[in-house]
Predict the structure.
Amino acid sequence: MEADHRWFRVLPGVLLCALLWGSAFPCIKTVYAIWAKQGIETGLADYWWFAGVRFTLAGAMLLAVARRPWAEFRATRFPKLAGFALTQTFGQYLLFYLAIAVASGSLAGLLTSTGSFWWIVLAPLLAGGPWPTRRQWLALAVGGAGITLATAAPGAGAGRPWLGALLMIGATGMGALGVIQFGRLRPTIGARAATGFSLGGGGLLLLVCGAAAFPRAGLLMSPAVIGITCWLSFVSAAAFGLWNHLSTRHPVPLLAGYRFLIPICGMTEALVFLPGESAGPGLLAGAALVIASLVMAQLAVPVIPPAARENP
C-alpha cells in the first residue's frame, strides 16, 4: 500500500520531532550552566562524556522496544551499520556538543537548518538524486546569507558565534550523511533497530572520547543533570526513531522540506527557556531568510513516492 504524502499526514510526525529536538538546545545549555554555577571547570572530555551517557542510554531504550534487533543486526552488513553510527551519532554529536558550548542555544538551533542544505548538495553525489535546480541554488545562496547575518549579530549570550556556526554546520553535514547511510540499510533492518544500534554504538565511542571525565562522574552528574540526561535520552530515542520511520514512509526530499520546523523550534525554545539569551536583529532577520530559503528549496523538489525509487 502506497504511503499518503499529503501535508496533514506528514506534518504531525515532523512537528513532534522538531519539538523534541528543539528542547535539546535549552537542556544542554542548562546542564552547562549548572556545572558553571557549581564552579566545575569543564572541557572537551566532559562534553563528550555527557553526550556519550545520553546516546548510550537512548540506544538501549530503542533496542528494548525494537522487534527483532539482533536478528536484523546479523542480517545487515556491519560496515554499513558502523558507517551509520559514525555519521548520525558519533561524528554529528562530537561537533554538536562543542557548538552548543561555544555559541548561544538560539543560534545553534537556527543552524540546524543547514542539514537541509547539505542534503541538496550531497543527494546527487552520494544517493543518486537529481542535481539542484536553479531555484535550489538560489535557495542555498539566500540561506547562506541568512546564516551569515544571524551569526554576525545573534544577540545576547552569543559566545563565540563564528566558531559555533562552523561546528554546527559540520555537525549537520554528518547528520545528512547519516540519512544517506540509513537509506542503504533499509532492506535488512528496521528504523528502531538501526537507530538503536547507531545511538548506542555512537554513544559508546563518545564515552571513550570523554573517558578522562569518568573519575569525576559523581561531581558532574548531580540529580538535576541526571534528570535532564534522562529526558535528552528519551528525546534522542523518540525523535530519531520517529524520523527514521518517517523516512521509510515518505520521500527524503519531502521530509527535508519540512525540516524548517526544526530550526524554528530549536531557536524559539532556546529563547524562551534560556534566561541569558535574547534575539538580536541579525538573528531575527537571518532566521527569516533561512526559513524562506528552506521553503523555496522545497517548492523546487519533485515528490517521488518511495515505491518509485530505487534504494541508494
In short: Residues 93 and 133 are 31 Å apart (CA to CA). Confidence is low (pLDDT under 50) at residues 302-312. The chain has one domain: 17-304.
